[in-house]
Write a structure and sequence with these properties.
Order of helices and strands: EHEEEHHHHEHEEEEHEEEEHEHEH
Number of strands: 15
Bound molecules: flavin-adenine dinucleotide
Strand content: 15-25%
Length: 364
């Protein structure tokens, strides 16, 4: 069966993503769900939702029946601390860990957005995302999922678009070396061939962060990465057509369950502690949580565990500072990639934005 390992949550605030889909003509492959985030609490066995209203005033926190169970209106004023955070602050510097709001809101959204534990995650980066999403209201937080999979929404239409523009794609050849003379890239050495760079050519390097350290050892860049672990179970679960096919889980090892057509996927962010666990052990632990949260009685079905050990860099204040200081690159080179957007976390939105910004950054 075909498994899409990218369990991506995209929100309607992601304008660069939406523009990109428009450009490559794949908008019709998207499903938009209402701005309702469903959660299951593994301790209390409570199923509850955050349903955002339109507009900047969050009416959902005013009523006991719509706010997060066990929280008081006053608790939400802690948000103001985020507005006054400093570059060096982590999420844990701002919020009290022993509160229901931390456990049911700050921690799951930090892990989901930054793929970094709260004691290391940059508060500023979280604030920047919230300003564009939750704080603007429900219109900006509709949940976007592909009707079929991300391959059909992003990859195949993008390849078609490039082919129509007569852009050649060279598969299975790895960039091994950059030949630099007088601060200009003169040659790209790939595993299969070489490309000479003429005076009028420009190079955009859109590779993972790790390669910056390899090609430019004198540049200090982050070296700590965080795992996103996905586990796919071969089981069909039926849900109502308009219901969001995503369930957040708290007080658990699992973070999000994605209900797909012929399987379900469980995502665990900042999952470095599971790097050395066997797939079998992880599957058993997670399946017991899935059974409880989706009220399933069945035995564990076939599964596939995928650990993406370098899903993102550890998005801490000190690492963001390192990214901001990457400047000394050759004059005909521009860099792109999710990690280059120092004011935003490493996401699809940032990756697309970085492509646009990389063109602006070509100064030579
Ligand atoms: C499991 C998982 C879940 C995620 N969930 C979300 C989510 O919910 N929402 C969201 O917005 N984002 C999510 N992300 C992050 C998102 O997928 C990334 O931010 C985005 O794909 C990064 O795109 P990119 O083009 O910058 O980098 P990449 O997609 O990593 O592209 C880099 C490319 O460089 C190539 N490359 C590497 N080395 C070389 C070399 N030496 N020579 C030539 N090519 C090379 C690689 O093969 C790769 O194709 C998730 C990521 C993972 C792994």
């Amino acid at each position: 069966m075909e498994i899409d390992n990218g369990n991506h949550i995209i929100l309607s605030a992601n304008q660069n993503f939406l523009n990109f889909c428009r450009l490559i003509n794949s908008e019709q492959t998207l499903n938009f769900f209402e701005p309702k985030f469903n959660f299951f609490d593994m301790h209390t066995k409570n199923l509850w939702s955050i349903k955002l209203n339109n507009g900047v005033i969050p009416f959902w926190i005013m009523k006991k029946s719509t706010r997060i169970p066990g929280t008081k209106l006053l608790d939400y004023f802690s948000l103001f601390k985020l507005f006054f955070c400093k570059e060096k602050n982590t999420v844990d510097d701002l919020f009290n860990k022993n509160t229901k709001l931390y456990n049911s809101f700050w921690e799951p959204i930090t892990l989901g957005i930054l793929n970094t534990q709260c004691n290391e995650a940059s508060a500023k980066l979280l604030l920047n995302v919230l300003k564009e999403t939750f704080l603007k209201g429900g219109k900006f937080c509709k949940i976007i999922q592909p009707k079929k999979n991300w391959n059909e929404t992003l990859i195949l239409p993008a390849i078609k678009y490039l082919k129509n523009k007569k852009t050649a794609i060279h598969y299975n050849t790895t960039l091994k070396e950059l030949i630099i003379e007088n601060n200009f890239i003169r040659k790209l050495v790939f595993s299969k061939d070489e490309i000479k760079i003429n005076k009028s050519d420009r190079v955009i390097l859109s590779t993972p962060l790790g390669l910056i350290g390899k090609f430019f050892p004198e540049v200090k860049s982050p070296t700590e990465n965080n795992t996103i672990l996905n586990i796919h179970f071969k089981i069909r679960i039926k849900i109502k057509k308009k219901e969001t096919p995503i369930l957040g889980i708290i007080n658990s090892l699992s973070h999000w369950i994605f209900i797909k057509k012929d399987h379900i996927s469980v995502t665990i962010s900042a999952a470095n502690k599971l790097n050395h666990y066997s797939s079998e052990d992880i599957a058993r632990l997670i399946w017991s949580e899935v059974k409880k949260s989706l009220s399933i009685k069945k035995e564990m079905p076939d599964f596939q565990v995928i650990k993406e050990k370098k899903a993102t860099y550890n998005q801490s204040p000190s690492n963001i500072k390192l990214i901001s200081n990457i400047k000394i690159l050759p004059k005909n080179l521009s860099i792109a990639g999710d990690w280059t957007q120092k004011n935003l976390p490493s996401t699809i939105e940032s990756a697309i934005l970085s492509g646009k910004n990389s063109l602006k950054n070509i100064t030579y």
